[in-house]
Amino acid sequence: MKQVSLPKNVHRVRRRLANGLSRWHFYAWRGGPRFWTDDKKVPEDKAFFHAFSEATARPKSADYMVPQMVDDFLSSSSMPQAKRSREDAKKWAWRFAQHFSTAPAAIFEDRRARGELNKWRAVWKHSPKQHDMAGTHAVRVLNWAVEEGLLSEHHCHKLRRLYEVDRSGVVWTRSDRDAINAIAPEWVQRILCVACETGLRPGDLIKLTRAAVENTPAGRRLRVRTNKRKKLAHIPITPVLAKVIDAIPTGQLLILTNASGAQLTEHRASEGLRQWRDKAGLNRDLRLQDCRGTAATRLLDAGLSLSEIANHMGWSIRNAANVIEHYARVSPDETDAVLVKLARAKGGAQ
């Protein structure tokens, strides 16, 4: 019997499954698109060879232009799901396509293309954040093109970034919250309270419903699948948060609403808090997202470990500890108790 061999350049990777068995993943080339998965080390199925042919049949470089590559990416399943993320991807991908409108996509297989991409994003060097966004979204398109076999490679990985921000020291203190609660309408107070007690991002806050509340042997918790990380978060319901939840009018499903009792948008939730922050004369750097630092402290106080807090927030354990420590030092009324618990948590995390 004639021995079957793999096509030239096929890259084969063995993956071990949870049940102890193995599966083989086949890529058109090392770093190229995966086109087949099989239990056999050397597949004999004719469909395997057909799939390989399709994976390596790239468009002719002279015919496949950057705008077409961008258009294909924007029509693909690799586009982000969140509305804001999709809008950002479209905006920057089309700016990328417009600048390289007369260039074939294959130019990015040349090392010199990295310099051309840097020249393009330098248009926004006056705005480090936009400068980095331009590169991030262009590289996302190029990564997709390599994964789909439309490019063999590209040389724009790990572009130098200009925008650096550390907001770990920006937190809502007890005095900040008291200042808002003294003048703001109830719907704004509720937003600030729930954000500071849960640490959820605005996109998750506005979707919180009664259905997320679960009873536990020790009390109650919120069970939430977060938008950004798509992971389940189990958040203890503190006494302060319990008051907000228990005060929801009968028949209202959403935990947070706008002034009219209708569903909030991310923008309205953030903007509403910003307006009352300014009226209260608070630090203009404070944003709704900065409630996450306050929440980390609340969660430590509620009994979560540093690793659990870090996992929920999407932080490193070190960053979670630094944020909590900063909060404690700028909130004198809580310093001693929080720092004692933090020291114990650090010991358990080592």
Automatic annotation (TrEMBL):
<feature type="domain" description="Tyr recombinase">
    <location>
        <begin position="158"/>
        <end position="340"/>
    </location>
</feature>
<dbReference type="GO" id="GO:0006310">
    <property type="term" value="P:DNA recombination"/>
</dbReference>
<dbReference type="InterPro" id="IPR011010">
    <property type="entry name" value="DNA_brk_join_enz"/>
</dbReference>
<dbReference type="InterPro" id="IPR002104">
    <property type="entry name" value="Integrase_catalytic"/>
</dbReference>
<dbReference type="GO" id="GO:0015074">
    <property type="term" value="P:DNA integration"/>
</dbReference>
<dbReference type="Pfam" id="PF00589">
    <property type="entry name" value="Phage_integrase"/>
</dbReference>
<dbReference type="GO" id="GO:0003677">
    <property type="term" value="F:DNA binding"/>
</dbReference>
<keyword id="KW-0229">DNA integration</keyword>
<protein>
    <submittedName>
        <fullName>Phage integrase family protein</fullName>
    </submittedName>
</protein>
<dbReference type="InterPro" id="IPR050090">
    <property type="entry name" value="Tyrosine_recombinase_XerCD"/>
</dbReference>
<dbReference type="InterPro" id="IPR013762">
    <property type="entry name" value="Integrase-like_cat_sf"/>
</dbReference>
<keyword id="KW-0233">DNA recombination</keyword>
